[in-house]
Amino acid sequence: QSALSQPPSASGSPGQSVTISCTGSSTDIGGYNYVSWYQHHPGKAPRLILYEVFKRPSGVPDRFSGSKSGNTASLTVSGLQTDDEGDYYCSSHAGSNSLVFGGGTSLTVL
Amino acid sequence: QLQESGPGLVKPSETLSLTCSVSSGSISSSNYFWGWVRQPPGKGLEWIGSVYFSGRGSYSPSLSGRATIFTDTSRNQFSLRLTSVTAADTAVYYCARISWIIWGLDVWGRGTAVSVSS
Asked: How close does chain A come to B73, measured CA to CA in Å?
């Protein structure tokens, strides 16, 4: 059960869009449509922003969107705002009631 | 809604014990698993494991059988026990609710820092 692979950093200017990838294998991302994304600001609890690849919990703006192709999932943040700065993590169901996380991507809004 | 508690300092080779108190909803709900995630300094989130209200648990293989998660339904709490700790277990530990319907962690605690040092 290896960690999912994410780029360590991403950046964009206010108003722009940025996409963060999350690559796994056929035993996690490729095998299930149970990919979630979390936003994490240091010192705070992580926040679920997407589940089942592209679905948004109540209260999450539609600027956050998700997709999946094969073993890779993606998070796109459109109309970047300064509040979007933080760390983003993907996770996937990995069978046998287990989960696996990505290494995290630090998003900077320039 | 979730609050972690436990010692902030544990000696090497000893057992780390943390408790998560659930203040909203019942830990006996069949809709959820209850889990632990940690973040070592400067690193990303790491899945530790989870438990169902029935007591059935699932754990990350990377912990080599050192982790146990169990529930206390009378107190609406669940706990993590990690044996034979080393400095590599130093981390912020988060408890979380996992909706098995979506396999996502929809409620998190704020985390508690644990350092392993003599």
From this structure: 21
